[in-house]
Structures are given as structure tokens and as C-alpha cells.
Amino acid sequence: MVKSDKRQTFNEIARFITCGGDWEVETIIPAHGDVVRGKKVCREVLEKHFNVQCSLPSVDAHFTSPSVLAWLKKMTLSYKLERGEDFLEVISREAGISVNKGDENDLMQLATLCASSPLAIASHDFLRADEAIYIYGNQAFLDGFGYKWDEFVELPSSKCVETDTEVEERQKLLDNIKDAAMSKTQSNEVDRYDNLVRVRKDGKKILLKGVHLWNVWDISENLDDARAKVESGAIKPIGQAVWISNVEYLD
Question: Which tens digit of pLDDT belongs to each residue from 122-131?
Fold first, then answer.
């Protein structure tokens, strides 16, 4: 029997065993099925069954640049503020990946997992121009919308829709997220939208399902202080971010 106050779930135990823990497991006796014997076999079975990923995947350098790390930190603090959840835990759970929480390289782990996640993740900022400009898009988002990194991070985010009517509808949606921020920071309400039609660079239409939007704030890790500033109107969002469960091609 395995029991530990610090590793309370089987996923955490599996990660501890397979990713450099102090234990060497030679035999696993499951509740159902055959006994597993041998250190290497035990490790392989745990990795496969619990989808444990010990090493971070390799990603392009721009996904882990200092400026991107700084923005991702703002994104994840803002997600915690508005949603009450850890963004790293959310994307790992949604993608079915086990991660090591509490590591000193949490931010690098977040950046790498965001970049390689099957979930489409993006963000625009309000700081560089009069209109929102994309500042981040992971590989799934770039592939879905048909852009390269260098052109994407200079692109007005309104370019993801085509007609004037669609531009207005999209802006109303984003404004609603911004306006609702003061009342949502103390609740677990989730702004999720389905069946949003957007346009790729090549003009083809795509359908977004499971669209989760939130504001990005320039805040510190003191979320109580940040919440007070948001609710009093002392600070305004510096951007917005999104993660999307599924992108479907319509054309």
C-alpha cells in the first residue's frame, strides 16, 4: 500500500515514482489485472496508464522568451483572480497531462505546456496600439488560424473575423468580459462560449467550441490586493486571453 500526505493522488504517486523519485518499484499489484514485475516495466506501465510526462517537450524559443514568460505570468495570475483556478492545472487537466506542481521552474513548465498544448491558447494586449494586438498564440492557435509567430504577434485581433457585423459582435463579447470583471472576481462563474465562427489567414472559416475568455491584469501575486484594486476600478485590464477546447474547419 502506498500512502503519503504530500502525494495524495495516484497521478502524483505515479509521477513521483517515474520521474526521479527516491523509490525503486519492482512490483505493482493492481486491484484488477495481472501483477507487473520489473523496474523498467513498472515505470512504463505507470507512464502509459497515468499519462505521466517526465520531461518537457521541445518548443520554439519564442514560446519561452523573457517577454512571453512575463506575459504568461500575468495571464495565469489573472486567471486565478477571475476564475479561482491555477491555469497550469487547468491546461494540464484538459489536455490529460500530469505535471509537477510546486517546481522552481513552474513558469517555464507553464510556457512549454502552453506552447505544445492541443488546446488553442492566445492573448491580445491593449498596450501597443489603439486597438488590441495579439501578443501570444500557442502552436495550436497559430496552426488553427494559419499564421506564423512573427506575423501573428503584430496582428490586430479583430482580423480573426471578416465582416463589419462580425467585428461588432466580437467587440461586444470582449467588452462584456471586461465590464463583468468587477463582479466576477469573487465568483467561480465561467465565461464559456460555443460555436463562434472565425476566419483564418487564408480566408477559410473555422468553428471554435469551448471558448474560455478572461481579462489580463498587471497584478502581483497578492490576489487580495489585486481584487480590491479591480473592484474599486483603480486598475483596468491590459489585455485579454482565451483557451479553446476545439477548433473545427468549416471550409
Answer: 999 999 999 9
- Measured CA to CA in angstroms, residue 16 lies from 42, 47, 93 at distances of 13, 11, 18
pLDDT tens digits along 68-79: 999 999 999 999
For position 37, what pLDDT does the model report? Answer: 75
Pinpoint the alpha helices (H) of 10-154. 10-18, 39-50, 66-83, 87-95, 106-116, 139-145, 149-152
In this structure, are strands 205-216 and 196-199 parallel, antiparallel, or unpaired? antiparallel
Residues 6+ apart with CB under 8 A from 103: 109
Q: Which residues contact 90 (CB under 8 A, 6 or more apart)?
A: 79, 83, 243
Alpha-carbon distance 52 to 6, whole Å?
18
Q: Are 68 and 136 in contact (CB under 8 A)?
A: yes
**What are the strands, taking DSSP E only, across the chain?**
27-28, 36-37, 120-125, 133-137, 192-193, 196-199, 205-216, 239-249
Predicted confidence (pLDDT) at residue 102 exceeds the cutoff of 90: no
Sole residue written with cell 488590441: 132
**Other residues' Cβ atoms within 10 Å of the Cβ of residue 108:** 14
| pLDDT tens column, 110-148 | 999 999 999 999 999 999 999 999 999 999 999 999 999
What is the C-alpha to C-alpha distance for residues 84 and 43, in angstroms, rounded to an integer? 34
CA angle 104, 8, 119 (to 5 degrees): 60
CA dist 11 and 97 (Å) reads 10
